[in-house]
Amino acid sequence: MNGKWLIALLPIVAGLLAIVPVIKADEVTVTASVPYYVSVVFNYNTVNFGTVPLGSTDYPAPGTYDGAYNVSVTTNVNLNVYAYRTNWSPYEGYLTLKFGTHSIPGELSPSYTLETTDTLIETLGMGSYTHYHGYWLTVPSGTPAGSYSTTVTITYTPA
């Protein structure tokens, strides 16, 4: 094919390209699910008040104001914090255990009296942080002598 034929075909080919219909693309919806993630690591497993004098009110557990009782939390959802205790052994009805939480250990206060039913303590936001716990015990005068114990259950659940 010589150069004259090529030049003559170019307008014809260009004309064919111009009449090709344009196809409109449809819109596409893209979805994804992101699961919730909750990591709660208790950095303590016991609270020992030692010997508490009779007549004590809101006696703090050793280490309460120093951050000894803390939990490492990482979450991408808001969390509800619940707590309850079992009956005191050997005697129920004498001791009062209070519980408090805060993001700063020195600012803890006895906010909630722990009972044997679940109590909503607070709702936490998303993030990664240390959550501090504090414990206070009231031992009224007239409490029978003995070594008392209870088990506290604290749960962090998606709000």
Could you state the order of secondary-structure elements as H and E? HEEEEEEEEE
Radius of gyration: 34 Å
Structural class: mainly beta
Q: What percentage of amino acids are in beta strands? A: 35-45%
What's the total helix number? 1
Fraction of residues in helix: 10-25%
User: Mind describing the biggest β-sheet?
Assistant: 6 strands, antiparallel
What's the structural blueprint in terms of helices and strands?
Elements: H1 3-18, E1 38-42, E2 56-60, E3 70-75, E4 79-85, E5 96-102, E6 112-113, E7 119-124, E8 127-139, E9 152-158
Antiparallel strand pairs: 1-3, 2-8, 3-8, 4-7, 4-9, 5-6, 5-8
Describe the structure.
This protein is mainly beta and 159 residues long. The protein has one helix at residues 3-18; strands at residues 38-42, 56-60, 70-75, 79-85, 96-102, 112-113, 119-124, 127-139, 152-158. The strands form two sheets. Strands 1, 2, 3, 5, 6 and 8 form a six-stranded antiparallel beta sheet that branches. Strands 7-4-9 form a three-stranded antiparallel beta sheet, with no helix packed on it. The longest helix is centred in the first third of the chain and has 16 residues, at 3-18. The radius of gyration is 34 Å and the shape is elongated.
Q: What's a quick, concise take on this entry?
A:
With 159 residues, the chain is mainly beta. It contains one helix and nine strands. It is elongated.
Any descriptors?
36% strand, mainly beta, 3-stranded antiparallel sheet, 159 residues, 6-stranded antiparallel sheet, elongated
